[in-house]
Design a protein that fits this description.
Layout: E1 2-7, H1 13-21, E2 26-29, E3 36-42, E4 49-53, H2 65-76, E5 81-87, H3 91-101, E6 108-113, H4 115-121, E7 124-125, H5 127-134, E8 138-140, H6 149-160, H7 177-188, H8 195-203, H9 207-212, H10 214-224, H11 236-251, E9 256-257, H12 266-274, H13 280-296, E10 308-311, H14 316-319, H15 326-334, E11 339-342, H16 347-369, H17 375-393, H18 396-412, H19 414-427, H20 436-442, H21 446-452, H22 459-468, H23 478-485, H24 494-517, H25 540-574, H26 591-599, H27 614-623, H28 629-639, H29 644-649, H30 653-665, H31 670-680, H32 683-709, H33 711-740
Parallel strand pairs: 1-4, 1-5, 5-6, 6-8
Antiparallel strand pairs: 2-3, 3-4, 7-9, 10-11
Helix pairs in contact: 3-11, 7-8, 7-10, 13-18, 13-24, 16-17, 16-18, 17-25, 17-28, 18-25, 20-21, 21-31, 22-24, 23-24, 25-28, 26-27, 27-28, 30-32, 31-32, 32-33
The structure holds guanosine-5'-diphosphate (GDP) and magnesium ion.
Amino acid sequence: MKFCLAGNPNSGKTTLFNALTGSTAHVGNWPGVTVDKREGSYKKLPEKVHIVDLPGIYSLSPYTPEEVVSRNFILDEKPDVIINIVDATNLERNLYLSTQLLETDVPMVIALNMMDAVEKNGDVVDKDKIEKTFGVPVVEISALKGKNINQLMKVAYDVSQKPRKGSSVIESSSLLKSLFQKTLTLYGEESCQNKVFHAVKMLEADELEVQLYPQIATITAELKKEIDAKSFDDDFGAVVADARYCFLSQHVQSAVKKAKRQEVSKSDKADRVLTHRIWGIPLFLLIMFGIFHFTFAEDFLFLNGIFGLEITNPGWINFFTGMGYEGMLEEALETGEAVVLGGIPSLGVWLQSWMGWLTGSIIDLFAGWLESAPAWLSGLICDGLLSGLDAIFSFLPQILLLFLFLSILEDSGYMARAAFIMDRAFRKFGLSGKAFMPLLMCFGCGVPGVMATKTLENEKERRMTMMIAPFFSCGAKLPIWLAFAGVMFAGQFGDLVVFSVYLIGIVVAIIAAIILKFTVLKGATPPFIMELPSYHLPQFRNLMAHLWEKLKHFIIKAGTIITASIVVIWFLSNFGFTFWNGMVEDIELSILGQIGNVIKYIFYPLGFAQGPDGWKFVVASITGLLAKEDVVATMEVLAGGAGLEAMIGGLSVAGAYSFMLFNLLAVPCMAMVAAVYGEMGSGKRTWGAIGFWVLTAYVVSMVVYWSVSYWWIGLILIVAVIAALTVLYLRNKKKRKAVAV
Ligand code: GDP
Ligand code: MG
């Protein structure tokens, strides 16, 4: 038997799933999309039940990968029961999805979750009334407390024994009733299942449905002309949605009795501070900086000397291994001085030093084994493969730590606030913050971020979002920032270096969006309505599942595309055009060296291509087009004996920033280009996007290089940008006033 869990995001599906399946659970991917697929089994019923946790969705329309996955599962894989999880503290919104699930023929049970929270608030939910309204059993549960969940499964099992016919709330809409019935009879001759579902989707003019039954679509379109839907601009998707909402407000509102609230909920209190008009953005930046600091800083900058840690015990030295304090500590302890360490070392750097030690030892081990092997073999394995992989793997702890922090922000509900705050700010310049959610995902990986742009209905806004998506620094670019952070300013301001790259990326994205908005992609700013979920304590299990996904992705990528490109780069940098003559002595004579030394002139205005190692930076940027991890791996292979740090150290601050920004902004990676092509559906537009990225990267890097090199250039540019933004803000203010009047 097969049961599936369906419901809105944050309704508690995964919590229930974990409680039901325990150790049998495993997480995979739905074919073709990066959406988690959780499966497991439940054994306390007469039959063993296979349970699938569907991704969180608000509707069954085909706009997001989550919706498509859930819809296909329910229609094609024929589960025996849909367990529809509903957040009882937010009934009306959650039951909107239920009205759509009801339209399928699959037996269904509604689980009213979070009843513990409902009771705590003193609210009362009339379960019988909901049962009568929807015609399916309703069970009150608390997934978190494990209350009533076995009861729920018993009811689900009973339900699975009887077939169910789909029903729709449209039948009680006077406007749509007869149209619906006529459409339904058209399906009578088809041999399909879930006829009610199909008929309603056809009324909504659902893309997939129209493709599937073009003949019925033509007839229905004719029938629709008899209906007056002018107040909805003849958008039947909106007419049907309205019918659903009317039904819910008629039948559900009276099923909930809210207790009189004497005090404001804790969430509201927190929101007063966290989404404050003025403090919202500074607080967001502070939180982000705190995270970056804790992950990347060598030292606690601002509290230096205020919170000092007095070191008297030599054992402490081990604790600080690899952080550059050993020498200082040893000397001081010998002379009997007390040492006061300026600040708190960050967890990330500490973990990184251990990882570096581990990977370093592995390389030494191999080097020992291969001592008597032929030069090309030990070169390929030690100088090529192992050092290239080491360069990426040593940053793994910090990458995972950053993702842990971001997952905590996401799961706790703070990220939704961030989008809300950003919308308020963006709107002042005529942009909508709705795009911010997919963009936030790009901090993890641009591919799911680009796929999530499906949630934006406005075509121009979608395209704009994809155009600026790569400017949000993804996880694969992190090793580049970290390699630089450890070297620039003697590694003293690592957190600030990384933080600044992220910030510059966001600023460039905003400016680029504004420029696009007023040139190529003109259009009105669509309204942005979003529900803020209440704050939750993130669950350890969920967090670990996120991290595990990330780790798996990283290891697979390292084992395939990155290993392959390292081997190629090693070959190209160790052999000349006459490669049959054996390895070259001087890397400048290698194939890569010769090519790099020619094309580097294109990058001369950007600063980093100058100097003896210039061509290596150029080559690294180009290999980064394949996968961004390749940038650091390439640099490591090309740096040779002198080492990566010496190579980076050869750049000026201006050159270093120019290099980082070029890699941040230029073409993200092949996977992302493919995703953008898939969404834009046109080669011409995709090439347009690639051109736009390269141009932006080139211009920004050049501007930054020259501004940092000559401060007055920077000053003039900053003043110009501020002036332009002010003009735009004032113009928009006038426009918004005019609208308000
Ligand atoms: P999903 O997005 O539907 O998978 O939701 P999750 O299972 O991740 O749960 C979202 C949040 O709701 C988590 O922070 C859970 O701890 C919380 N939650 C889930 N079930 C309950 C419940 O029965 N009561 C309460 N108070 N919180 C719950
Ligand atoms: Mg979930």
